[in-house]
TrEMBL record:
Membrane topology designation: Single-pass type II membrane protein
Coiled coil: none
Source organism of this protein record: Branchiostoma belcheri (Amphioxus)
Name used for this protein in its record: Carbohydrate sulfotransferase
UniProt keywords, alphabetically: Carbohydrate metabolism, Glycoprotein, Golgi apparatus, Membrane, Signal-anchor, Transferase, Transmembrane, Transmembrane helix
Domain of life of the source: Eukaryota
Localization (cell): Golgi apparatus membrane
GO biological process terms on file: carbohydrate biosynthetic process
InterPro entries (UniProt xref): Carb_sulfotrans_8-10, P-loop_NTPase, Sulfotransferase
Length: 332
């Protein structure tokens, strides 16, 4: 009988211990979950604060440059360069080779409450064209500059030049006719270089208007862009400071192509765009370092210096650093 009583007491004790352990386990789980959620919350807050700090620094850098430099001679950009988004009251100064196609797709989807990819968006442009500032009256233009959220997207000058050359001279030159239009850039190299080979760049013929135009190799392109010859200038590699008049226009938000996905997350919050976050591009691994090495390793330092002098205003306005770029070359 005593043995049975002891057994019952032992079972009750074990049951109580099990209940205690179960409750303790639940408490530990709740505490762990709470800590994880708090950590995640603080992590997101830190990311937001970091993004906001970076954005503030970009605006401050631009304003500081404008205060200390004479920019009165800068021409005001053509109104057509500005895309207007009426649904969210946005003004975007379109700059080629800074992720502008991605941005146009986002703005078109925002304006028409849609979710089209770039190809489908372009298919709709005849029926649903972009609103551009040149279609507004002077009074309407003034109102939008004063009240709309104004966006500009910039890019490291050296990376932007690579992107322009690849797109216009290498990937699809026949579609754009850039080999024909700028074939005279070859003059910068042909004086002391073989007509059939320029370092690693072949002179590949392309038929246009029953004529063959050789590819403009990247070294020739860089030499040409570094000059001030008007026939070799083009909006796809023109200074952003000349295209969008950053000192004349009080931009509310500055994106960098290098961080465009992260920047869009903050921009959506600042512009009051809610529930459309699926339009924001995904964060992808950048190929900037590869571009730097693969393309600029063949460029003489004197040509790089010419580019640095040519794009000095863009470097200074938007917080890029030419010397950091050179370090990237030699760190490979």
């Amino acid at each position: 009988m005593k043995w049975l009583t002891f057994t019952r007491i032992l079972l009750v004790a074990l049951l109580l211990l099990a209940i205690l352990c179960l409750n303790l386990e639940k408490d530990i789980f709740k505490a762990t979950l709470y800590i994880r959620n708090r950590t995640r919350t603080y992590g997101l807050l830190d990311q937001k604060r970091t993004a906001e700090r970076i954005q503030s620094e970009r605006i401050a850098t631009l304003k500081s440059y404008c205060r200390t430099n004479d920019t009165k001679t800068t021409e005001f950009p053509t109104r057509r360069r500005f895309i207007v988004n009426e649904r969210y009251k946005l003004l975007y100064c379109q700059v080629f080779k800074t992720g502008s196609t991605t941005t146009l797709t986002i703005l078109h989807n925002l304006e028409h409450n849609d979710r089209r990819n770039t190809h489908d968006m372009r298919e709709q442009l005849n029926d649903l064209p972009f609103k551009r500032l040149n279609t507004y009256s002077d009074e309407e233009v003034r109102f939008r500059f004063e009240t709309y959220t104004k966006l500009i997207i910039v890019r490291n000058p050296l990376e932007r030049l690579v992107s322009a050359w690849e797109d216009k001279f290498s990937y699809a030159p026949s579609r754009f006719g850039y080999r024909k239009q700028y074939h005279s850039m070859l003059k910068t190299l042909l004086s002391n270089t073989s007509n059939t080979e320029l370092g690693p760049f072949k002179l590949l013929p392309e038929g246009t208007d029953n004529r063959s135009y050789p590819i403009v190799p990247f070294p020739a392109f860089i030499k040409a862009v570094g000059t001030n010859r008007t026939e070799w200038q083009d909006p796809h590699w023109q200074l952003i400071s000349d295209l969008c008049a950053p000192c004349q226009i009080d931009y509310d938000f500055i994106m960098h192509t290098e961080t465009i996905a992260e920047d869009y997350q903050l921009f959506f919050r600042k512009a009051g765009i809610v529930g459309r976050e699926y339009l924001i591009p995904e964060v992808r691994q950048r190929k900037g370092d590869r571009l730097f090495w693969d393309f600029y390793k063949e460029i003489p330092m004197e040509d790089l210096w010419q580019i640095k002098q040519k794009f000095k205003v863009d470097y200074d306005m938007f917080g890029y650093n030419f010397h950091d770029d050179i370090v990237r070359f030699f760190s490979r």
